[in-house]
């Protein structure tokens, strides 16, 4: 496990804003607020615990809204807080119209929405349409017999004549995706844990019930939904076996099973019909948006998620860029260009971290330059033409704190496959607010997951005081993309394309350009941008991730330290 070294001691900032503040463009009532939004993902168990039970809650989030306002976020996406047996920590919902008591009450939720609104912060709910909990009354009824009113609400099938599951489909969490139920003498399909049965989206009653749930939350002021596992809504009706991968992709998955090509369980065309209908529902309420959890194989499939007539998701997550997981200028350049040119002018939603993947420093860090790398990643996230997702703690440089023994593991997948797969606890540890007990997250004797060992130095309070901290670098970047017309919505233009060490691009608008240069190597680099797609000779420094970049630079000779990021206005 790597830890983030002490943050760089001095980061120089020179804010030369190209345009006056355009706060109206960020106003709550602007229906296009999401186009260059910064959306902050909160895993509520781990963000802030207001009642001292060791588990974060809604009132904890409300108390921290001023922090989020100070950071500059436009919206917060909160992972599921509905009543749930918590087998998959909320992604197994048993009541879609209520609040799990461990997170608070509906009154707490309403207060959170109202207080957030006062600060121009929108609330985005996580909506799990693909499956429910097996304790949801819908499933309990469905599982009780073959002829009850909800008998067809889930994916039920007979076993093979020898009693084996209907086909070879695998659960994402290992093992067969089918579970036997005696009362029906049938199997049900579950893409995730067996406690998460998949709904039957071919049944219009399921669709109508779910759409009404979405309306219920929008009426409460929720400004949109992050759609969980949205590409998985449909399965092949004939229940055909999936083929095994061949060629270089073949092999065993992390659970030791032969890998399948998921052509009958993922990304079926019918998903788009539902997204179009759901978009109509969302359009009933102004300014509401749909974000998708869209792990897709390529940019072509991602483009389809916006809909042929821009009538599906506003912001399907672009997981191509942030999960590259190695520094390669050609790879990042290609993915940024794809996002600019192959999404039909739509806005990509870039993401480097979430609650299902190791923290970005664990994937991109080299153990020596991690502080610089964290700033570099922040710059790639926040300076292209995009909407940006920040996962709580990313802005202070939190790293994974993986469990040290199987007994400590909370995530069932980690318990089952320890030590090969340690589960997702490591990226879900409590937010590090200060250097006090429980890192200021809670007052409990024991928190649901232990606080990361680096919390004495990596925490909000320490970084707020340090003008050169990663947190303050994030704040400056967010402020900049809000106030600088080029960075806010200028075109993205890749330049200096023969350079494989430094990634450079322009953001252009109204005849002006801002240049961003990013050193992807552990050695100092000098770039010459003149005549390489950049018309100008000088660079007026706006922001740099390192000390002493100078106020102006010659565009033919910009020096970048290892993993340094430089942002400047192009001048004649
Ligand atoms: C994706 C969620 O992000 C993940 O945490 C969850 O386990 C699965 N979907 C199942 O809901």
Overview of this protein structure:
The chain has 572 residues and is an alpha/beta fold. The chain has a domain at 35-130 and 204-480: TIM Barrel. Helix content is 24%, strand content 16%. It contains 15 helices and 19 strands. It has helices spanning 58-63, 65-71, 106-118, 137-144, 204-219, 270-283, 299-304, 319-322, 329-341, 360-364, 370-382, 412-417, 460-465, 470-483, 485-489, and strands spanning 38-42, 75-78, 122-127, 156-157, 178-181, 186-189, 224-227, 289-292, 315-318, 349-351, 387-391, 491-495, 502-509, 512-519, 525-527, 538-544, 552-554, 558-560, 565-571. It has an eight-stranded parallel β-barrel with strand order 1-2-3-7-8-9-10-11. Strand 8 (289-292), helix 7 (299-304) and strand 9 (315-318) form a beta-alpha-beta unit. Helix 5 packs parallel to helix 6 and helix 11 (370-382) packs parallel to helix 14. The longest helix has 16 residues, at 204-219. The radius of gyration is 24 Å and the shape is globular. 50% of the residues are buried. Mean pLDDT is 94; it is low at 1-27. It binds 1-deoxynojirimycin. 1-deoxynojirimycin is lined by residues 88, 91, 128, 192, 228-229, 293, 355-356.
Provide the fold topology.
Layout (H helix, E strand, L loop, with lengths): L37 E5 L15 H6 L1 H7 L3 E4 L27 H13 L3 E6 L9 H8 L11 E2 L20 E4 L4 E4 L14 H16 L4 E4 L42 H14 L5 E4 L6 H6 L10 E4 H4 L6 H13 L7 E3 L8 H5 L5 H13 L4 E5 L20 H6 L42 H6 L4 H14 L1 H5 L1 E5 L6 E8 L2 E8 L5 E3 L10 E7 L7 E3 L3 E3 L4 E7 L1
Parallel strand pairs: 1-2, 1-11, 2-3, 3-7, 7-8, 8-9, 9-10, 10-11
Antiparallel strand pairs: 4-6, 5-6, 12-13, 13-14, 14-19, 15-18, 16-17, 16-19
Helix pairs in contact: 5-6, 11-14
Bound molecules: 1-deoxynojirimycin.
1-deoxynojirimycin (NOJ) binds next to loops.
